[in-house]
Amino acid sequence: MKANQFQRHLAQLKGWRETAFILALAERAYPNFALFSQVVDFPGANAVATCLEQGWGALVEHAEEDRYIELLEQLEENVPNLENYDMYGAATAVSFCEILEQALLSQVNTEKRRASDTAQNAFESVMDFLETTEGEGLSEDELVKLFDQSPLIKREKAFQEELVERLRKESVPDEHVVTGLRVLASDEGVSNIGISLDEE
């Protein structure tokens, strides 16, 4: 799919489709948060995981705005404070929380379109990871080449395109649809930056 076509289709996602798109991005990034939580024994891990789970549930149940506000408050109380953790994993955990926040906000402030910015942020998370792990000492041109050739970038692009196409074909966010989206997003437990808890 050409970039301009993808951006046009992405911009057309509204209502539950936009929320589902962003929730799927969060689902994909969740192993990053889970690994961080496991390493540091993060006390808010279960509360944040519940927010993701119940975010999907609220979509299926066509929940009222108040439900999403409750989840936002719960999430906000349990986001890791980067000042307390001197490790890269904390940044990926916070990035996951920020994506999840945008998903929940999309059902509270429905006037603002969030899918395009959040999709770009998801790409930037992958690029940040590549720059951190493989980009030391590279020039700007070499970084661009690294990004262009990276399997992680190509994988993220393919995922987002398939996700948009699926959402365009669905009419309601029932359990069957949501289960399919979550399976697609989780990609057998491998996150957007290639993290898998099964590797532990």
TrEMBL record:
Q: Which domain of life is it from?
A: Bacteria
Q: Which Pfam families match?
A: DUF416
InterPro entries assigned to the protein according to its UniProt record, in alphabetical order: DUF416 (IPR007338), YP001051499.1-like_dom_sf (IPR023381)
Q: What is the protein named?
A: YjaG family protein
